[in-house]
Amino acid sequence: MSSDISAITGGKIYTMKHPGDFLSKVYIKNGRISETPGDGDTLDITGKIALPAFEDTHTHFFGTGLSLTQLDISELTSLSDIKDAIAEMVKNRPKGRIIGIFGYAPENIEGEELSGEVLDSISIDTPIFVRRKDGHSSFGNSAFIRLLLEETDIKPDDVVGGFIPERAHTIADRFFSSRITREELIEAAAKVEKIALSNGCLTLHSYVPKKWWLKLLLEIAPSLKIRVVPYPEIEDIEFATSLGLGRVGGCILLDGSFGSHTAALFEPYADDPNNLGILYKTDEEVASFFTEAQEKGVQVALHAIGDRAVEQFIQGAEEACLRLGEPFPHIIEHCELIHPEQIERMARIGLRAGVQPTFDHLWGKPGGMYEKRLGKKRKELLNPFRDMLDSGILLAGGSDSPITPINPLLGIYSAVHHNNPTQRISTFEATSLFTSNAAKLVFQGDVRGTVEVGKYADFVILDSDILNGEDILSANPVMVIREGKIIFSNTQS
Ligand SMILES: [Zn+2]
Ligand SMILES: [Zn+2]
After folding, report:
1. Which ligand neighbours the alpha carbon of 303 most closely?
2. CB 343 within 8 A of CB 393
3. Which of 17, 76, 356, 443 lies in the 20 to 30 Å Cα band around 301?
4. Torsion angle, CA of 231/232/234/236, rounded to 10 degrees?
5. Same domain membership, residue 261 and residue 238
6. Which pLDDT tens digit goes with each residue over 154-184?
7. Of 336, 337, 338, 331, which Cα lies nearest the Cα of 354?
8. d(CA 204, CA 82)
9. How many whole angstroms separate alpha carbon 295 and alpha carbon 188?
10. Which domain holds residue 120?
11. What distance in angstroms lies between residue 450's CA and the mean position of ligand 2's atoms?
12. In the chain, how many domains are there?
């Protein structure tokens, strides 16, 4: 591991500049792709392909690692299995530590659902905190609710029966993460790195919701094998600029999610006819935030899922554009429910979109969650990758990990096999979401994302030719190369 490579040869090296464009040899010198070889070995990739290393544009960096130290119940389909799994965890954890659980998906559960009472039947003295899979609401037992009422602004009326809805959930989640130590974060970072590399992913756009967590990430970044693109996920533009970061945001919420009936809609939910979802900010707050950011040259990414939230984003950006006389390429994260007229306006002022194709894979099937929430007709408007690309919008791909796994091949597969056939995109286009477009999204396309002389020698080696029709889901990342060094290999050689 980590010896220098001076050339890659023996298999196709896709440049990702144009569809079908590949080289049969590249030279590497001083960590960059070069016209002449530097010192080191030649890597023979016969029978395999090389691509620019994958890049995931939406990860909750520490949240992903921390989720691995908590209990994931997303695969469990009965309340009794959930109770057994939580009881086991309570038994094995030191007393007094909050038991963190995530992945609760009531749509997968037959019969009785979770409640504060059910959690109390497992333990009344160990605090238990269970978050829904979509990350927008949660449950706590009495011991956890007691802590929330003592140590946060949450009021008893906000958390009836142990259910912690949207706004209170955000506070509860923050409270839970405030109990996390530096050692736990460092351990979490190592776990994220391992998962990313084994999925061929070298660069993670990393959303970090606390200042000291972000400073820690910047401190450890030079010793990580992966690259991080840090996003302070807080509304403090000064803080971002003081650290020399040209961006701010991430899942800073304009609205909620479809799963929790909180994504903001123009027309009510199909399965909740009096509900239009939630907007967290006023139009003026959004416009001023964009204006201030643009004045300081800072790119903003905000979470907008429903059409009413997407509208607030676009309007805010249009307003900032009017005030300052020019547009700025901010990023709509998720950008799921969007009308053709809104796509046109996004394109007109150069807004970018960070999308999660795996969402459609999970929730876009006939009869699935999207259809239940929005009805058949409105579901057709969701995640319009084909239309957004055709209108010239820069589209990049992410996982929203830990909501879905850091697994660009699954993202590529999901975009190619979109549940709405009119929104499918080609394998080349889908791959570009996780390579060239991902780098361009944050103005770093000049140093990575395609195979070109002068750019970083960052590659993922796959064991099947996905760009030539071979099955995407059965492809395996067998190696990741960063700046000419092998930093991950799952072969014995
Ligand atoms: Zn989000
Ligand atoms: Zn997110």
Report:
1. 1
2. yes
3. 17
4. -120
5. yes
6. 999 999 999 999 899 999 998 998 888 898 8
7. 331
8. 32
9. 35
10. 67-178
11. 26
12. 3
